[in-house]
Amino acid sequence: MIIPIRCFTCGNLVADKWDEFKSRVDSGEDPQKVFEDIGLKRYCCRRMLLAHVELVDELLKFPEAARAKKIERELQ
Fold it and tell me: What is the pTM of this model?
């Protein structure tokens, strides 16, 4: 799933802050400090970024596994 454009609760824009948040947290910064720096003050907006899961990356793994199983069956 991609990050929602707006917060579900208050309607504030959150998608434009995702890339900076993700890169800074992945580099080891404290999420609370990153939220303060990018200007997300409401906990509902913070939830949108903090709880987001990149499902697309997870789902892309499955076609490769299915293809590998199909090839394995054909070889048997």
Answer: 0.71
